[in-house]
């Protein structure tokens, strides 16, 4: 039996993790696809993914296990990622970038939700 065990993840958690990945990918100029590959990735992409995991951890207040599950990884990886990112925050440039990403992510999630399929208006579908 070679099936990979996957913990069920709430759709909302996956969407939030995707938002953190997308913002981080934009900030570091690394495609999300490169950051989320299952095979070995280059160091820049790995550190960008770790930054996204840390961003989710601090922005959403998620425990490491929830971060790991939302990103499809294990808790040890999430712990390593957050420990590395926390150490990197000693660098002024990285700290400034992460502060901006945290603010952007929080503002994005504070926006009102808009129904893309409101009730059918008479005469329209």
Number of H/I helices: 6
Shape: globular
Low-confidence stretches: none
Structural class: mainly alpha
Number of individual domains: 1
Query: Care to count the β-strands?
Result: 0
State the CATH architecture.
Orthogonal Bundle
CATH class category label: Mainly Alpha
- Compressed to H and E, one letter per element, the order equals HHHHHH
| Span between termini | 48 Å
Return the CATH topology. Answer: Chromosomal Replication Initiator Protein Dnaa, Chain: A
Classified in CATH, the superfamily is: DnaA protein, C-terminal DNA-binding domain
**Biggest sheet, open or closed, and with what strands and sense?**
none
Helix content: 55-70%
How does this model look, in words?
With 125 residues, this protein is mainly alpha-helical. The protein has one domain (11-110): Orthogonal Bundle (Chromosomal Replication Initiator Protein Dnaa, Chain: A), CATH 1.10.1750.10. The chain is built from six helices and no strands. The protein has helices spanning 11-28, 32-35, 43-60, 64-71, 75-88, 92-110. The model has no long low-confidence stretch (mean pLDDT 90).
């Amino acid at each position: 039996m070679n099936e990979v065990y996957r913990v069920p993840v709430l759709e909302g958690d996956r969407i939030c993790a995707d938002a953190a990945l997308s913002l981080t990918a934009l900030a570091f100029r690394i495609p999300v696809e490169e950051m989320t590959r299952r095979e070995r990735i280059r160091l820049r992409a790995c550190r960008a993914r770790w930054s996204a995991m840390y961003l989710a951890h601090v922005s959403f207040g998620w425990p490491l296990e929830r971060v790991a599950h939302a990103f499809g990884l294990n808790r040890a990886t999430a712990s390593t990622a957050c420990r590395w990112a926390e150490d990197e925050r000693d660098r002024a440039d990285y700290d400034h970038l992460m502060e901006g990403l945290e603010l952007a992510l929080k503002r994005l999630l504070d926006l009102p939700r808009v129904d893309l399929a409101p009730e059918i208006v008479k005469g329209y579908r």
